[in-house]
Amino acid sequence: MSGARRLRLQALLDALVARLQVHDSAIAGQLRREVLRLDISGPMPDPVWMDTCDLLPDLVAQMRDDLSAPLSAAVRDLFWRRPGFGRLPASLTDNMAVTEILGPDGMFAARNLRFGLLLQGPWVSYPSHRHAAGELYHILRGQAEWQVGVGPARLQEAGAFIHHLPGQPHGMRTGAGGMLALWGWTGDLGADSYAV
Predict the structure, then answer these.
(1) 0.90 cut: is pTM over it?
(2) Contact 98, 82 (CB under 8 A)
(3) Domains and CATH numbers, the chain
(4) Under a CB-based contact definition with an 8 Å cutoff, are residues 173 and 148 in contact?
(5) Which residue stretches of the chain are H helix?
(6) What start-end ranges are recorded for coiled-coil regions in this protein (predicted)?
């Protein structure tokens, strides 16, 4: 089983890296290079599926692009957990899930990035937060009102890339459909800098 699971995860990583190629930015380039050089042949944790993840099959089924097949095949192979490094209330994280595929706390160890997926359920407001790492989000399905810094919130839809500079406050609120997004951190990856 682990051989087939590893193949599905590699196909998903390949598809996510291909998606990053359409964003011409330093952070997307760095994420691509780091993901491509990492080896996922080592040990991996058993999959974890949270109640919130029950939203995923419908969200993924609505996708009609090059990511839908590898994501559909691998979504139950991932290790899902609550976001926020234990600093968010359960009333919020009961409606969210994150998987860190590659990273210091990831399914596969990586020292130079955190890379994975974020699921945010319908009508969830992820409050303004910040961290020392630079961050890139790419919305795969759904939409959210996104606020960066002190500026007004702007509606971001599937296909959008959102780049946060190190230390830049940001928050997002989903609507009726929820949101599935790719995310990546570069630079200072320490969880101790994460603050709400």
Answers:
(1) yes
(2) yes
(3) 2-193 (2.60.120.10)
(4) no
(5) 2-20, 26-37, 56-61, 68-74, 90-93
(6) none
10 Å CB burial of residue 28 (0-12, 13-18, 19+) is buried
pLDDT value at position 2?
82
- What's the rounded mean pLDDT across residues 93-118? 96
Query: Are 77 and 9 in contact, with CB atoms under 8 Å apart?
Result: yes
Q: Is residue 1's pLDDT more than 70?
A: no
Residue, of 42 and 163, whose pLDDT is higher: 163
What SS3 string covers 25-61?
A: CHHHHHHHHHHHHCCCCCCCCCCECCHHHHHHHHHHH
User: What is the C-alpha to C-alpha distance for residues 8 and 53, in angstroms, rounded to an integer?
Assistant: 18
Contacts of 78 (CB under 8 A, 6+ apart): 9, 47, 48, 99, 101, 107, 117
Please give the Cα distance from 195 to 27 (Å, whole number): 22
The mean predicted confidence, pLDDT, of the chain is: 96
